[in-house]
Design a protein that fits this description.
Helix content: 40-55%
Mean pLDDT: 87
Low-confidence stretches: none
Distance between the termini: 59 Å
Length: 547
DNA sequence: GCCGTTTTCGGCCCGACTGTTTTCAGTCG
């Protein structure tokens, strides 16, 4: 059976083809359906089996029919027919920055160009001269874009944990340059999407020119792609595009809302506004010429009688209706976290490092801190912290902070059996030898599943965690649940664990990104194991030995 | 092709920027 991702690509492909064929509204309809499927947390096949495809936003009679055909046969006649009408290279042209469907169609129909390479040849041969709307400057841009596309294919999306430190540096750089009053990040970064295609920065400033100049001169900026009175677009050395916009303070909320998106969320808001005789744009909410809101996001939402909606769930997946009914979930906050359950130290960590970590936990106000004292590595090796270090963490008496021990093992044995060390609880991880969950539920102390990522592994381990009463860790990277996995876990009534960042100074993005993923999945405090009270979490831990 | 507390037909977010334009079209987000 085809995967959701294959359906996403199928409908995107149809949209591109329809675009080139000159269709007006169908392409957007297929893109809408494609985005909608992309944000599903369940297989299309399962939804189809329940006869609920029409509940997916953007799916109507025609697209439901096409999904069913695709699920049943693995292909789609309609798509195959469209592909016969358009040379494959014409769709490739759409990927060239600055070239859209109108231009691609004209190159195809007028000089008869059927792909990027042919277009480059046609330009060199002067075949575009005299084409209306394509003067020397435009042709030069296209030529440069074609060359750039050939040199570095796919300017793909960046994982958010990779983009995170880049974004922090850009913000810090702009602040240091001066002239900046408020500065915030928007776009899919703010919505905590797993990957970002670009970064959106929003600034208020009395001196936009000064800010743009400073932005252009940041060390990571490779080229300035465009610059106007209110926005500047640059490309960073590693290829990421960044948009910087300067807005007036009284419009900051409207602009932040607008540039945070998502597109579908904004379109929905706008149609609500229209129904009320209001107009929303990035400058504010207007009744006629009168601005009625715009300084803060909450103000903008309030004009539509909506509560402020957290950015992580602005995907037009029902959050607007929920806000209208006053039924938005109260999403987990950083300050809800009561402790850390998965703190790794270096294999040769000293007692001093234990103390430093405990200090960090105290600074965050955590009520418990579980150190992994022995662990099985991904390739089946075994590591135990130095005896003096383990003895030291047992001896620590820190008022208000309960220190615990965890042992991290593969799923093969009864958890913890191989370890000579007492453990308050067990962390289970898939290993190279045994990536699948054990058939029997674990016996003994409470269990946290960590280092699980990837769609199929996540599915299996969520099912196991459910039967075992275990929790699963959320966060960035291939070894933790992303927002889709977190939602699946939540829907299976499996508790989540969020990293606090304690004990891992390198992992600044980890804590923030994990929290974003959890919120994106609609997670509330009660879904998170390490947001319960310290007493509740540590109740099952072994009694402390006397010092 | 989708969608509906104004609609089952007639709409479909809206503005910045660029280049090529004598008033606008295309692209992008």
């Amino acid at each position: 059976m085809p995967t959701n991702q294959e359906a996403v690509e199928l409908f995107q492909g149809i949209a591109d083809l329809l675009d080139v064929l000159g269709e007006r509204f169908k392409p957007e309809a297929y893109r809408r359906a494609s985005r909608s499927i992309e944000s599903l947390t369940e297989d299309l096949g399962a939804i189809a089996a329940r006869n609920e495809l029409r509940t997916v936003p953007g799916v109507g009679d025609a697209i439901e029919e096409k999904i069913r055909e695709f699920l049943a046969t693995g292909h789609l006649d309609y798509y195959d027919r469209l592909r016969k009408e358009v040379p494959p290279g014409i769709v490739e042209l759409l990927k060239i920055p600055g070239l859209g469907p109108k231009s691609a169609r004209r190159f195809w129909l007028e000089p008869g160009v059927e792909g990027p390479a042919e277009l480059a040849d046609a330009i060199r041969a002067g075949k575009l001269e005299g084409m209306k709307g394509f003067g020397p400057k435009k042709v030069g841009q296209i030529q440069a874009a074609l060359a750039a596309a050939g040199a570095s294919p796919a300017g793909g999306r960046l994982p958010i944990e990779v983009a995170y430190p880049i974004a922090q540096r850009l913000v810090a750089g702009l602040r240091a340059a001066g002239g900046v009053e408020a500065i915030e990040l928007a776009g899919s970064f703010r919505r905590a999407r797993e990957s970002v295609g670009d970064l959106d920065l929003l600034v208020t400033s009395a001196e936009p020119e000064r800010v743009f100049d400073a932005f252009s001169r940041l060390p990571e900026v490779r080229e300035v792609r465009l610059r106007g009175g209110t926005k500047e677009t640059v490309v960073l050395t590693q290829g990421l595009q960044v948009d910087l916009r300067v807005v007036a303070p009284e419009a900051f909320g409207a602009a932040w809302q607008y540039f945070t998106g998502s597109k579908d969320h904004n379109v929905h808001l706008r149609s609500l506004a229209r129904d009320r005789g209001l107009k929303i744009n990035e400058y504010g909410v207007f009744r006629g010429d009168e601005r009625v809101a715009g300084r803060t996001e909450a103000e903008v939402y309030a004009t539509l009688d909506l509560a402020w909606i957290p950015p992580e769930i602005r995907e037009d997946r029902g959050e607007i209706d929920a806000a209208a009914r006053g039924e938005l979930p109260s999403l987990v906050e950083r300050t809800d976290l009561t402790g850390e359950l998965h703190c790794h130290l270096a294999p040769a960590a000293t007692p001093r490092e234990v103390d430093r970590t405990i200090e960090a936990a105290r600074a965050l106000g955590l009520g418990y801190l579980g150190f992994v004292v022995a662990w099985e590595t991904a390739d089946g090796g075994r590591i135990t912290l130095p005896a003096a270090t383990v003895a030291h963490l047992d001896s620590v008496r820190s008022p208000g902070l309960r220190v615990g021990r965890a042992v991290e093992v593969g799923p093969s044995g009864p958890p913890g059996e191989w370890s000579p060390l007492r453990a308050d609880y067990t962390v289970v991880r898939p290993t190279g030898k045994t990536p699948d969950p054990p058939t029997d539920p674990p016996k003994g102390p409470p269990v946290l599943v960590a280092h699980v990522g990837g769609e199929s592994a996540a599915r299996k381990w969520i099912a196991w965690a459910r039967s075992a009463g275990a929790a699963i860790e959320v966060g960035p990277g291939a070894e933790r649940l992303d927002s889709t996995g977190a939602r699946a876990a939540r829907e299976a009534d499996v508790r989540l664990v969020l990293p606090t960042g304690v004990g891992n100074p390198e992992a600044d993005p980890t804590r923030a990104v994990a929290l974003g993923f959890a919120r994106r999945a609609g997670t509330t405090k009660s879904d998170v194991r390490n947001a319960a009270s310290a007493a509740e979490v540590t109740r099952a831990w072994a009694p402390r030995p006397r010092a």
